[in-house]
Structures are given as C-alpha cells and as structure tokens.
Amino acid sequence: MMNKKWFAGLGISAMLLGSALTGCSSDNGGSEPKDGEKVEVTLAGWGGNPTEEKLLKETLADFEQKHPNIDVKLEVITEQYMDVIKTRLIGGEGPDVFYLDAFEAPGLIKTGAVEPLDEYVTKDFDVDDFEKPLLDAFKEDGKTYGFPKDYSTLALFYNKKMLSDAGVEVPKTWEEFTAASKKLTKGKVAGFGAAPELARVYWMAESKGGKVVTDDKASFASKEVEAGLQPLLDMHNVDKSAVEPKEVGASWGGEMFGQQKAAMVIEGNWAIPYLKDTFPDVEYGTAELPTVDGKNSTMAYDVAYVMNAASEKKKASWELLSYLTGKEGMKTWTSKGYALPARQSVAEELGFDKDELRAPLVAGASYATVWQKGPNMPIIVNNFNNQFMSAFLGKRPLGEALKDAEKQANKEIE
C-alpha cells in the first residue's frame, strides 16, 4: 500500500499528464489509427494460476479472431502491480487497458488517469446485466470508469462431518453461529477460524448501523461499530471458540479449514479451487453469511477493466474492454469457476447461481458491500488492522483500540 505523500505526488503528476495530453486525446486520440489499419492494444494485469492464464489467453485469442485488425499485447505484472501501473501512468507509458481493483479505484479515478466510458457504451452492451454493487464501485460523479470483469463475495464454509458429528445445523443467524462455534470447539479444533482484519470484518463493523468511513475519514470509533465487532472478540476471548490462523500454525483461513483445525471459516470463491487441489478429501459445504438482526450482509472484492485516459487508441481499447466484459468474453474467462462472472446472465448460463458451492457466493452479490470506500482507505485499513488485532487477542479493550486507530488514521489523512 502506498503512503500518503507518494499518492499526493501521483495525483498531481497524473493530472498534469492528463492536461498535457488534452489536445491530442479529447477526441478519442489525435493519433487514433484509421479504419482498416492494424492496431496493437496493450493490456496489463496481474498474474494468476496456470488455468486462469490459459483462460485469459483463450479469451484474447477469440477476440483477435473476431477483430483481425487489433492485436493485443498482454503484459503480466507479477509484483507490486499498482505501484508499477501508477509509475507507468505518470511516465506516459501506461497500458491502454488494465485491471483495477475496486479498493484502488477511487484514488486513481481522482487523478484523471482513467477514461470515463459512458460515451462508448452501445445498447447491445447491456449495462443493466451487471450486478449493481459491483458496477457502482467504478462510478464517480455520475460517470462510469470501469466495467467489472469478475468478483468474489464471502460465504460460510463448514465441515460437513464435524457439524454432523456435533449435531449442529448450518447456522443462519449470528446467534446460531456463535452457539454452533462453541459446540464445535473440541480439543485442537476451533469452531470458527477468524480473519481479524478490516477487509473481512467490514460487514460486521457496519452491521449495527455504524460507519467505518465518513467523508473520506475514519469514523469507526463509535458505539455502533464497537457493538458490531465485539461479538467476534467475545468468541475468541470469552467463549474460546474462535482462533486466527497463526494461532494454529496456518497462514490463512483456507489452509486452517483444510487442515481441519477449524470447523467453519468465512472465505471467498478463491478457497474452492484451493481446497479441491490441496485438501481434496475434506467434505464441506457453503452457505450465505449468518444474518445480523435479520439482515443479510457480505463483502465483495471486485475487479474491473479500465481504459487509460491518455491512450491514443481508445476506439480499439474500447473494443477490447467491451469484449472482455461482454457476455461472450466473460463467459470464457469465468467458465472454470476460478472467478465469478459480474454479469447475472453469465452466472445463470454457467449455472453458478445453482452450483452447490458457489450459489451462496453468487446470491450475496446483490446485497454485498464492495471492499472500497474512498481514496484514503489504505491509511484507514493500516491503522485499523494494527489496533484491532491487539483487541482481538485480548490485549486491550476494543473501544480503546478503535479510538486510537481512528485518531491516528485521521491525523495521517489530514
């Protein structure tokens, strides 16, 4: 994550870059290739597993076959993806089209480095087909700056045998969940494997009406946020029914669950192929997250394709972007289930909305809170996580930890 000073410098540099290029790009690129000319469009993204890389290359090959005048140069950035992208954008060497995580979107959009896409959209693109929360994450001031390529929500993963042996039903409410966790905690097995970080507990923090962020500043030191989070701490410190991965020698929730050191975890779609490949003998199911006060909630981690505002090949870039986020391209890319399609029609066509393991994840897309809340989230997250972990481990009261974290975060923001 970037520091505040570096981000401020990026914003100024990127806006100056945009201003300098206004004359040649305001009409979709002064040097836009003429019809019939061969065009090379650069596409940048981070690396994935071999199956994902194969699917992306297959999707790009289909695109090039249908658009013989456009070649796609794929650039895979394996480390420090956003730092590399930002540096290249400042230097005027950014890719034409690139991945953008919803978490990073507000800050980058404010710099002017991302092209608004509304003027390119045609009726057959069917914008209404996207899950609304996923699409809204890339809107600013009424303009759309990206179209989602895929996402994951969070779901409850539970060990079928452990629940059966303990006579426990799959919990549907938070009260049922805490009771089940206590009953499932036996010996070296915890009822719940928790991930005590804001990216995973944001939905809980706001479950009692509090707000983690207000007007781009931290606002989580409230009684409402404390009330939303305290039950998780009570599971760890009072009931002794929850642990975090490091406490049982694991690196993350999926590993802890696969090793059967926790009967239940809250994870995303990424855990499904991981468990299949690494722990194929574990029998498990998934369910939507337990409701709090009768309300459904979950998180969504959302990635879009966006266009470089300084691109001189915007017409061709849109052809690529719209294919990748269109129904045909998205179907190919998400066909193996490594990523979930952001379009409702594609999820239905591939059967993910009825899939035994993925249906709860798909169901959550319509009501999910996207992991994103303004340009200052990196600062807010860092301060929250540092103090929240100490409270989760019982080293200090939650209210005190939240107040210290909020004060420090806003000091850095100001």
From TrEMBL:
Record's keyword annotation contains Nucleus: no
Any GO BP: maltodextrin transmembrane transport
TM region positions: none
Signal peptide (UniProt feature, chain positions): 1-25
Keywords: Signal, Transport
Cited PROSITE patterns: PROKAR_LIPOPROTEIN
Short name of one Pfam family: SBP_bac_1
This protein's record includes keyword Hydrolase: no
GO MF term set: maltose binding
Any single GO CC term annotated in Swiss-Prot or TrEMBL for this entry: ATP-binding cassette (ABC) transporter complex, substrate-binding subunit-containing
Family: Belongs to the bacterial solute-binding protein 1 family.
Protein name: ABC transporter substrate-binding protein
